[in-house]
Amino acid sequence: MNKRRPYVRSMDGWWKKNPFFVEYMIHEGTALFVAAYAGILLFGLLRLAQGEAAWNAWLSAMKNPWYIGFQVLALIALTYHTYTWFKIMPRTMPPVVVGGQRLSAWAITGSGLAVAAAACLGLLALVWGMAR
Amino acid sequence: MKPTLKRSNAPIFWALFGAGGMLSALLGPMLVFITGLAVPLGWLLPPDTMSYPRMLAFAQNFIGKGFIFAIIALFLWHAAHRIFHSLHDIGIHAGTAAKLLCYGSAMVGTLLAAYALLVIGF
After folding, report:
1. Which residue has the higher pLDDT, A92 or B117?
2. How much is the pLDDT for B45?
3. How many C-beta atoms lie closer than 10 Å to residue A80's C-beta?
4. CATH 1.20.1300.10 describes domain A14-94+102-131
5. Which of residues 41-80 of A touch B (CB under 8 A)?
6. ipTM tops 0.85
């Protein structure tokens, strides 16, 4: 053992001291909801493979208030993920040059969010059309 | 000096992270709304939207199979990569064990989804 015991500054909760890092931790944290939601879907898929009774049990489990509560939180988290994904996009993609001018960050974020809104509405319309 | 440079496997994980991040950014909120709120609570959509015959037909269809597989697998890989890289930020050493746990669970989930989709048949 080292007898010196040098002072090491604690890093606990380092991100709570700066709003920029609080936001960073929240948007990284959306991954927990993405994982949990994918897990619920995976479980549903496995139940579907087991037949009608198993599938119906999964469907009625989804009506459980705990699940509904989770889904409300997941909806908020995934919507926030969508927002931050496109907000960060100007810094995560290579620069796009249109007509000799670099495409502005706002244009990239704005068009990303517009495409996401269209994709969501398109999905709802598709499901509604198939289920009708 | 090494005679040949070892190729990094990072681009594979990053590509899966990016693909899953994009897919969940585009469709995630509406998927949660449909499967988690609208259907269980009987809002907006017909009550038999996710009934057994409908979901079975969807999962047996090639496009439906591909969609279900892409959603589950890519969401898992996206989340696994992001959680793995956030471990350091919350003071957990992101070593080989953590890497195996994160990417390993995404791999297990992917294989389970593939297995279920094969059992459901064509």
Report:
1. B117
2. 94
3. 17
4. yes
5. 41-42, 44-46, 48-49, 52, 55-56, 59, 62-63, 67-68, 70-72, 74-75, 78-79
6. yes
